[in-house]
Amino acid sequence: MLGAYIVARYVVLGAFAVSLLVALAGWLVRTRRISPFGAPGRALRAASDPLIRPVETRLVRAGGNPVHAGWWLVVGVAAGGVLVLTLWNWVVRTAYGVSAAFTQGPRGAIALLIVTAYQILIVALVVRVVASWLGFFRYTRWLRPAYVLTDWLVEPIRRVLPPMGGLDWSPLAAWLALVVLKQVLLMVVGF
Amino acid sequence: MKLLKTLVNLIVATLVGALGDKLFGAWGMMLGFIAGGLAAWWVARRVFD
Questions:
Q1: Which residues, including other chains, have CB under 8 Å from residue A124's CB and lie 6 or more apart?
Q2: Per-residue pLDDT tens digits for A23-44
Q3: pLDDT confidence of residue A1
Q4: Backbone torsions φ then ψ of A154, nearest 5 degrees
Q5: Using CA atoms, how far apart are residues A73 and A16, in angstroms rounded to an integer?
Q6: What is the pLDDT of residues B24-46, one digit of tens each?
Q7: Pair B8, B44: CB distance under 8 Å
């Protein structure tokens, strides 16, 4: 399993290096630092266009500058790579956790449920907060699950803890409340 | 544009920070992160503006 993870890390690193080269090639041609009509320019375009074109289409639709499509590709590959490796890690750790929990009987299984629920709620809170920094709020379709999962805790806290200094502290307070709740529940179970 | 520049800065700073960590440990990571961020910011000004 560890070997496969190391291979995955190298694959992500390789994809990142390729995206960087593609972005550089696209940028050189699109900004006319290399003539797009000469042989080197045509070769660079032929190599970079298949990867840049889909990003460019989306970027133009979103009102962005198509010249920067290559750099968005680099950012997308980096973010996607980190996400894939993080998910991989999480799945492996969860699988080990599940097998360890079930060897300890029902108490272990309940503790695992508590910890898993806590982790899911924390991820939902982080997604909610980071998305709000980027201008996405509760009426964005892909954000609905994060709001549904955390509203029961964040909204009552917000009513007693209004925004101070231009910052909304309720997600931070919700996180602290979740930490305390998790510890109390684990103590009740006997961990 | 601002978001793209910030994200590129963050990626370069993280990569240089990881390199600094491998070479010089925790202080290398911190200095590498700062140096990478500053270098990326300087290059991004010329590339994106």
A1: A145, A146, A149, A150
A2: 999 888 888 888 888 898 899 8
A3: 67
A4: -70, -45
A5: 9
A6: 999 999 999 999 999 988 988 88
A7: yes
Task: Tokens 């590339």: give the residue.
Answer: B47
User: Is the CB of residue A44 less than 8 Å from the CB of residue A52?
Assistant: no
> Can you give the pTM of this predicted structure?
0.70
Residue B47 with chain A: CB contacts under 8 Å: 27, 71
Measured between alpha carbons, how far is residue A31 from residues A28, A73, B48 in Å?
Answer: 6, 17, 11
Q: What token pair was written down for B47?
A: 């590339």
In this structure, the dihedral spanned by the alpha carbons of residues A96, A179, A80 and A167, taken in order and rounded to 10 degrees, is 180
Q: Cβ–Cβ of A134/B7 closer than 8 Å? A: no
Amino acid identity for residue B36 in this structure = G
**Is there a contact between A65 and B1 if contact means CB atoms under 8 Å apart?**
yes
Q: Exposed, middle or buried: residue A180 (CB in 10 Å: 0-12, 13-18, 19+)? A: exposed
